[in-house]
Design goal:
By secondary structure, the chain is of the alpha/beta class. It has a single domain, classed as Glycosyl transferase family 29 (sialyltransferase cstii, chain A, Alpha-Beta Complex), CATH 3.90.1480.20. The chain contains 12 helices and 9 strands. The strands form 2 sheets. The protein has a 7-stranded parallel β-sheet, with helices on both faces. It binds 2-acetamido-2-deoxy-beta-D-glucopyranose (7 copies). Keywords: Disulfide bond, Glycoprotein, Glycosyltransferase, Golgi apparatus, Membrane, Signal-anchor, Transferase, Transmembrane, Transmembrane helix.
Length: 364
């Protein structure tokens, strides 16, 4: 049936036009005859509300971003840049939910690294990536730390996890990072105060960064390298691959007598295995989680507030300027091991949920 405009409808239209006209006249009148300051206030309140509305929309967009879909840099920088300028909304419920989930699956609180408390003499430790085991002898057991520096309730306060992304270069984020209660860094990344800060409580070492050769004969280069981080714990994944164990144990043996105030600790393969299962169960398709992603999970369990810096696995920033790969060099990673853009989608989701704060812009 063709659509016919009835008399009643057209009358309504006329009435609507008339009221609209009257309103327009009223608005013009008010603008001309009322003091301007009041209108300015109304205007800015209006734009504030529009901004807030836009922020809510953006939060929803990135909250619902599908983890399987990789980020398309050609059209995500605009909306993401706008989203990062929105006030951050933190969600305590979501944080507690994530903390409990991670505690029940993986338990960094009590199992992050091997201690005298969670490891027995002669215990067989399974490797993370193979079926082999390693028997912890009495001599090694004696060198393990007594317990964790945090209480059984965790809660390290405000934590900063510093990734190594090129986005940190010229970021001036050093002061913000150093103001955290607990600072985690990755793979002995260089520190200085302007862009990345200096405070360090925990720093990971990749076994490939160590060389057993000459370590005992001349420990000075190693000592120099690690003393930059003050008394921060040095965490090594000694039991992920079988050929990483000897050099890791050697490092502990060499450093403990020289720098007893700086603990050398070994990532628990139990923790890493369960964390791997947890994320693969949620659909993350990676061969192995990146160290940065592992430490974000540690922080989500142990900290009240988690701030991420330098987590940005793309080669342009939000202003589409070219970035180098790391903030300290431009060496590309081995391909096919990590899937950092896939991990990043999850970090973006966690940010939109109010579970953590991603910092992707320079700190002013
Ligand atoms: C923008 O990204 C979305 C996914 O978020 C994708 O579906 C779309 O095709 C992209 N558009 C362009 C022009 O690349
Ligand atoms: C906070 O997170 C909880 C759990 O996901 C959710 O039910 C709630 O709606 C969120 N609150 C806000 C204000 O977004
Ligand atoms: C974590 O591990 C400790 C030590 O094995 C255990 O006592 C505790 O119950 C575990 N917590 C959870 C939530 O599984
Ligand atoms: C560990 O094993 C060694 C021999 O393999 C044995 O002599 C020692 O008593 C064991 N220690 C403990 C605490 O079981
Ligand atoms: C950092 O700042 C220096 C000096 O201002 C400039 O030359 C350089 O291009 C900047 N680098 C990046 C990655 O923005
Ligand atoms: C590191 O530990 C030593 C010995 O316990 C202590 O004297 C020093 O103040 C500590 N340094 C820092 C930066 O905490
Ligand atoms: C900080 O360290 C980075 C990487 O080592 C370097 O590029 C940058 O120039 C340093 N900045 C200062 C102020 O030393």
């Amino acid at each position: 049936m063709p659509y016919v405009c009835t008399t009643a409808q057209s009358l309504q239209m006329d009435l609507f036009k008339w009221i609209f006209g009257l309103l327009t006249v009223l608005v013009i009148f008010t603008c001309l005859y009322l003091p301007c300051s009041r209108n300015h206030k109304m205007g800015s309140a209006m734009t504030d509300r529009l901004k807030l509305l836009n922020c809510m929309k953006l939060r929803q967009k990135f909250f619902n971003i599908s983890p399987a879909e990789s980020i398309d840099m050609t059209n995500v920088t605009g909306p993401l840049s706008a989203f990062m300028s929105c006030p951050h909304v933190s969600n305590r419920t979501q944080k507690e939910l994530n903390r409990l989930r991670l505690r029940f699956c993986c338990n960094a609180t009590d199992l992050l690294y091997l201690t005298k408390k969670n490891t027995a003499v002669n215990q067989s430790i399974p490797y993370e990536t193979s079926k082999r085991v390693y028997k912890v002898g009495a001599a090694l057991h004696k060198m393990l730390p007594e317990d964790f520096p945090w209480s059984s309730r965790g809660h390290l306060g405000r934590c900063a996890v510093v990734g190594n992304g090129g986005i940190l270069k010229n970021s001036s984020c050093g002061r913000k990072i150093d103001s955290a209660d607990f600072v985690i860094r990755l793979n002995l990344a260089p520190i200085n105060d302007s862009d990345v800060g200096v405070k360090t409580d925990l720093v990971t070492i990749n076994p490939s960064q160590l060389s057993a050769k000459n370590m005992a004969v001349n420990p000075d280069p190693l000592v120099q390298r690690v003393s930059v981080y003050g008394n921060a714990s040095l965490m090594i994944s000694a039991f992920s691959y079988t050929d990483c164990t000897a050099v890791s144990v050697k490092t502990l043996q060499v450093l403990q007598p020289i720098r007893p105030q700086q603990p050398v600790v070994f990532f628990s393969p139990y923790y890493l295995k369960t964390l791997d299962c947890f994320w693969k169960g949620l659909g993350l398709k990676v061969k192995r989680l990146s160290t940065g992603f592992m430490l974000v999970n540690v922080a989500l369990e142990l900290c009240d507030d988690v701030h991420l810096f330098g987590f940005w696995p793309f080669d342009i920033n939000l202003k589409k300027q070219t970035l180098q790969h790391h903030y300290y060099d431009n060496k590309l990673p081995k391909p096919f091991v990590h899937a950092m853009p896939d991990e990043f989608v999850y970090l973006l989701q966690l940010h939109s949920q109010g579970a953590l704060t991603l910092h992707l812009q320079p700190c002013l």
